[in-house]
Design brief:
five-stranded antiparallel sheet, alpha+beta, about 700 residues
Length: about 700
């Protein structure tokens, strides 16, 4: 492994002629770079710059056999790394600051590899850095990258412990691969049976760092940004007998509901406005359902928000194991704390539903409030509609239909690029731009409804999805984020109205989405084979979903289900411990038996030499405790003279089998040669036994 400074060379050596220390150092630096690289999105830019410069500098020193930097230089770089960490994170403690400092220390430690112990520090810092990736992401891609990093670090570690010489790195890599394969059964047993008390990997994400799709507030234009994001928000699997989804027009997954509008931003009602009716264990009693229930299972990606996304309308609390979900009066399900890890839950929905008061209610007046001084032309439009003789005596349902007809026939369009809206967003939509994304349409529609004195509010969530034919899961992405409206109609309660469907029916009915411009590579793939990119994405997402379902979401409940399948009637964590202990004990006994067998199957060459030495001693030849074949042959000639010649010649053959130069012992360098020598030993002419 890396040693002290070597001779200064005028020019770098070819790779094949590099000293072993330099070659091994360059390999270790490449592995460290691979381990650090996935942190590019998680760490401050200066950290990655420092790591790249330190690794590059160390590689240059190894290639040119130059001396390592002085300790005062390393101390200065260490202080600089600590100052940068504190400047970036305002602390030296915590997840982000800790990982930043570890990466910087790992890179700087490579500049101090003067002895083997320094190299071992780099190895173990590398192993720890490898684990820190799972604090940020537990995706299959990260796991595969870290598996390669693990094999690389094991290869470097094994190579550092090989004897002197220049052993090929391929030999160390092969041994590392075998060690990983030998350890895999133990790893699987520990994963399956070790009692679950926390998530598999990761720490709670920082509030400012967690990725979030929908927000707790909505400004006009927010959802448009999500439409450009192709990341997965959640996956759904329908659990009815044939796995079929409801009709596409019914695939609405409810998120935050907004009732308060200040002219620019929609917000939920404040708790005091709910008259202390904040959270319940069940939906409101006014919820009425009919039709066939739809059981489903959802795998929700972390979003650092407390709400659960549920198919409208989910009538019972989603099954979350030991965690509890609560319902709001607006049919939204929430948890007591933000979701910072992959979460899987099951629930039952009734797409055909109604809820809310069917008659006049004082609280409904809050759903008609509008801020003063905003959207005067929209207010004027509402006043004209109320005075229109054609609408005289029309009920609220007829007015809603009239507005939808205006959207369908008034030249309005659905677009990802509506431009930047100004102060009066509803006025601009209805009279000027006549173009917008779903939140422009929903917000303007609700403003007009309230101007008509019809209670209305904005609902955000996700609509539609895409079924992966490989595993049957429906995938909903951030680009499926949607905003729609709910209006209150006398005798019916709250009714879902999706004004976007009036402008672009394909958005809801046939899952037609607006697509952001593709990159150069993606465009080339689509041009070459329109279905290729879709197929590749489907394969990858099905594979990644399996990883999520069977690894990241392997909970204590699934452990206990496994024990039930194994015959435990009422399994508990104590049963898991007992079963795991039994497997480990059986593994230890098996390893001991293998060691005993291996001892008996020790080097057959040595075993044959020991047999010859034992037979010679039985005939009176005095031999040392450990003797080479040539020594035994010489002693046989001294003791027996010509009678010892057969044993002497046999021992020289045995020596040649082990020690002849390469290429000279090919005919004997086989297991058959040892068997032949063993037969010769049994028929060898020995001197008479000593009396």
């Amino acid at each position: 492994m890396p040693g002290g400074p070597g001779p200064v060379l005028n020019r770098p050596l070819p790779t094949s002629q590099l000293p072993r220390d330099s070659r091994d150092t360059l390999f270790l630096l490449a592995v460290v770079a691979w381990v650090v690289l996935p942190h590019a999105a998680n760490l401050p830019a200066w950290t990655l710059l420092m790591a790249c410069l330190a690794l590059g500098w160390r590689g240059w020193l190894a290639w040119h056999a130059r001396p390592l930097p002085a300790r005062w230089c390393l101390m200065g770089l260490l202080l600089l790394a600590m100052a940068g960490t504190f400047w970036s994170h305002k602390t030296l403690l915590g997840r982000d600051a800790g990982v930043t400092l570890v990466v910087a220390l790992l890179a700087l430690k490579t500049l101090e590899m003067r002895a083997r112990r320094d190299a071992f520090v780099v190895f173990f810092l590398g192993f720890f850095t490898m684990l820190t990736h799972f604090f940020f992401s537990q995706s299959l891609l990260v796991a595969l990258a870290m598996l390669l990093g693990l094999l690389g670090l094991l290869t470097a570690l094994i190579n550092a412990n090989l004897p002197a010489g220049r052993p090929p790195l391929a030999t160390s890599a092969g041994l590392a691969l075998r060690m990983t394969a030998w350890g895999a059964p133990v790893m699987v047993a520990l994963f399956v049976l070790f009692p679950r008390v926390a998530p598999l990997w990761g720490l709670p994400a920082d509030a400012q760092g967690a990725r979030s799709g929908l927000s707790s507030r909505m400004s006009v234009g927010d959802v448009t940004e999500l439409a450009l994001d192709d990341a997965i928000a959640f996956r759904v699997r329908f659990l009815n007998t044939n796995g079929a989804a409801p009709e596409q027009r019914q695939l609405y997954f409810r998120g935050p509901v907004f009732s308060s509008f200040d002219g620019r931003e929609w917000k939920p009602r404040q708790p005091e406005e709910l008259m202390n009716q904040v959270l319940y264990r069940r939906p409101p009693a006014s919820l009425k359902t009919q039709g066939t229930p739809v059981p489903y299972e959802m795998t929700l990606e972390p979003n650092n928000r407390p709400w659960l996304l549920t198919l409208d309308a989910t009538v019972e609390a989603p099954r979350l194991g030991p965690q509890i979900a609560y319902a709001t009066p607006e049919l939204q399900w929430v948890m007591a704390r933000p979701i910072t890890e992959l979460l899987r839950y099951q629930a039952v929905a009734y797409p055909d539903f109604s809820y809310g008061p069917t008659g006049s209610d004082p609280l409904l007046r809050q759903e008609t409030e509008l801020p003063a001084g905003y959207n005067p032309r929209t207010l004027q439009l509402a006043s004209e509609m109320r005075r229109d003789p054609k609408l005289a005596g029309a009920d609220d349902a007829a007015l809603v239909q009239q507005v939808l007809n205006r959207l369908a026939t008034g030249g309005y369009s659905y677009t990802l690029e509506p431009g930047l809206y100004g102060r009066d967003t509803a006025d601009e939509f209805w009279f000027d731009r006549k173009a917008g994304f779903c939140e422009h349409v929903a917000s303007s529609f609700v403003v007009l409804m309230r101007a008509l004195d019809i209670p209305a509010r904005v609902v955000t969530g996700y609509q539609g999805g895409e079924r992966n034919p490989l595993d049957g899961y429906w995938t909903l992405r951030q680009s499926d984020a949607h905003a729609w409206a709910e209006v209150w109609l006398n005798g019916r309660g709250w009714v879902r109205i999706d004004p976007t469907a009036a402008i672009a029916p394909g958005r809801v009915g046939s899952m037609q989405r607006l697509v952001a411009p593709r990159g150069l590579v993606a465009s080339a793939l689509v041009t070459m084979s329109p279905g290729l990119m879709q197929s590749l994405r489907g394969i990858w997402e099905a594979t990644n979903n399996r990883w999520n379902q069977w690894v990241l979401n392997y909970t204590q409940g699934r452990q206990l289900d496994l024990l039930r399948k194994l015959g435990f009637e009422a399994p508990s964590w104590e049963d898991l411990v007992l079963l795991l202990g039994g497997l480990l004990a059986a593994s230890a006994l098996g390893a001991g038996a293998w060691q005993l067998w291996d001892r008996r199957q020790h080097d057959p060459w040595l075993r044959l030499l020991n047999q010859a030495q034992t037979l010679a001693r039985a005939r009176g030849l005095e031999t040392p405790g450990v003797a080479t074949p040539r020594t035994l042959g010489r002693l046989a000639l001294e003791r027996w003279g010509p009678a010892g010649q057969p044993l002497h010649d046999w021992l020289l053959q045995l020596e040649r089998l082990r020690y002849a130069p390469p290429g000279q012992n090919d005919p004997l360098n086989t297991s058959g040669a040892l068997k032949n020598l063993a037969r010769q030993l049994r028929t060898l002419r020995w001197p008479p036994l000593a009396r």
